[in-house]
Sequence to fold (489 residues):
Amino acid sequence: MRWYIGKEREPGESEQPYWGGSLRLRLPFIHYPWEWPEFVEGAILCVVPMGVIAAMQASLGVTYEMGLTMVIINNFMYLLHTSFGDPTLAGWITSGIPLYMAFVADYATPGSGINSGAIQALCALQLLMAVLFLGMAFSGGAKKVAEIVPTSIKAGILLGAGIAAIIRTWENNSNGIQNGVAKWSPELGIGPISVSFLIAVVLSFFILWSPRAIAYRKEHKWFAWIAKYGIAPTFIIGYIIGLALGEVPQPTGVFDSGWVFVPHVSETYNAMSPFVIGWPSASMFVGAISTAIVAYILAFGDILVAQAIIDEANDARKDELVIIDPNRTNFWVGIRNLIKALIWPYLPLCGPQWTAGQALVVNRFKNSKPEEFYSYWGGATGMYWGMASIMLVYPIVLAVKPALPYGFGLTMAIQGYLCTYLAMEMVTTNIERGIAGMTGGILATRGATWALLMGVLFYLALVWGTTGKKKSDRLQEEETPEENVTPEK
Fold:
C-alpha cells in the first residue's frame, strides 16, 4: 500500500514534485509516499545518536536528561535538509569528535556539575562553523576548498582524525576498572578490554565490510534481513553479552518515570545558552580557529561522499532524479550550527551526512522497483522521523542507558576504520603518504593547530614549486639520479 495522495512525477528521469524554488519544500504524503521500513530502521538505530550523551556528560558536565534533550531536538532538525530539497541524511562531523573533546578540555573549569568554560569554548567553535558553512553557501566557494587544500594535507587530517578516534576508543586506562568490573567511558578509553565490546566491534566490522558478509546477504535471506539494520543488531548482541558477564550494569527505574520523555528544553537552555551563561572570550574564538578549519575540511569530505552516493542512486534508478547541491547543503548545515550555538552548543557539531544511514536508504532505493520504493525522499525523511520519535518513549531510552557508551564506542571505532582507509586511498606517492602520515600523527597527538602548521610547512618544503606529483614521485622512487624535478617558472 502506497501512503501517498500527491501528484505522480512525470514519466522518465525527473524530480519528485515540490513547492518553492531553490529550497524545495516537500511534505510526507503530499509530495512523496511514506516509507515504513526506514521509519523502523531509524527507531532501531536510535542507539547511535544517543551514544554521544556519555561524551557530553564527560566533556560538558550536563545531565543525562539534558543530553537526551539535545539529541532529540538535533534529530528533528536533521529533517530541515530532506524537507527543503537537500537529499543528505544529515549527521555529526563525527571523525573530529575526539578533537572537539580535546579542545574544550583546555577551557574546562574545575569542579563538578555544568562546565561553563567548556560550554563557552564549544559555543565559539560552533559559531565559527556556522560562519564557515554559511559563507561557503552564499559565496559558492565549496568547490574551491577542495582545490586549495593539497591532497596530502586533506589525507593527513582524515588520517589523524581516524587515529584519534581509535586512541579514544581503545586507550587502556587503569581507571577503567571500577569495583573490579571493566567500565568503558569516552573520557577514559576502553580501559581493560571488555569481551562484550570486543564482540560488538568485530561483528560490526564483519557485517559492514567483510566480502563473506556480502556473499551471505545474497545466499541467506535471514542474514540479509539482519544486515540491513547495520550496527543495531551488533549493539544488541554486545549489550546482552555485557549484561550476562557483568560488564554492563543492569538498567534500573525503566518504568519509574512514565512512558513519555518530555525534553528538558528550559533547563538545558538556561544551563548552556550564551545568552544566559555569557559569551565566549576572544581567546576562545582564536583558539577555535584551527579546530574549525579541520572540522570543515572533514565535513567537506562528507559532502563529497554524499555526492558519490547520490550519484549511485541516480545511476541505478532512472525513474527519479535526486539532485544534490553543495551550496544548499552548506546552507542548512550552517543554519543548524548557528541555532545550536545560540541555544545549547552541541559537542559533535552539525555536519552534512550520516554516512551509514545514507547508505542504508540509497541501497534499498537503488535495489527496489518504483512500486516497492517509489521516492527516495520517503526513505530519507522516514529514517529520522523514526529515530527522533522513538527517543520520546522513556522506558526504551532508560533500558539502553547503561550501554550507551557502547553505541558511542562502536561509532568511534567504525569512524576510525573508515577515516584511516579513506586517507590511505587518497594518497598516491611516497611524498604524499609521508606528509599525510606526519600531519595525521601530529593531529592525533598535539591537536589541530600544530597539525595544520606542520602540514603546510611539509607541503611547502617537499612539494611546492615542483612541476607536479609525478616528477616529485620519481625523485623519490626512480633509480636514475639524474632525473631531477624542475621548478616551475
Summary: The chain has one domain: 37-194+247-425+436-444.
